[in-house]
Write a structure and sequence with these properties.
The protein is mainly α. The protein contains 6 helices and 2 strands, in the order ααββαααα.
Length: 109
């Protein structure tokens, strides 16, 4: 049995709360990694966007700030998935000042 199979076997016996603690630990261990979010200089001026799209995180945060529900956002952006919003909100929590500045900059434009 390889290491991955051993881990998979161990995880299958854990409670949901224990699995959640492991996920939190792994997220901390990965540091500044945000799956589902990418910043590419040639896409949206390097602003962090949802992968597979050109939808910047600031746009989604601003939509939520203006009162749109997640269901409305998903309806208005059919290429988005619910997990994309989860990733966007997580990125925003860790990069609040950066995203707030992007919102300010784009409102002024």
């Amino acid at each position: 049995m390889n290491t991955f199979q051993q881990i998979e076997h161990l995880l299958s016996g854990l409670k949901r709360s224990e699995k959640a603690r492991i996920l939190q630990w792994m997220a901390r261990d990965l540091g500044d990694s945000y799956p589902g979010i990418e910043s590419m200089p040639d896409i949206c001026g390097g602003e962090p966007c949802i992968v597979r799209t050109r939808i910047p995180v600031w746009l989604l945060v601003q939509a939520r700030n203006l009162g749109m529900s997640e269901a409305e956002i998903l309806n208005n952006y059919p290429t988005l998935r619910a997990e994309d919003l989860v990733n966007a909100w997580a990125y925003y929590r860790s990069h609040r000042s950066e995203i707030d500045q992007q919102i300010t900059d784009n409102e002024a434009a």
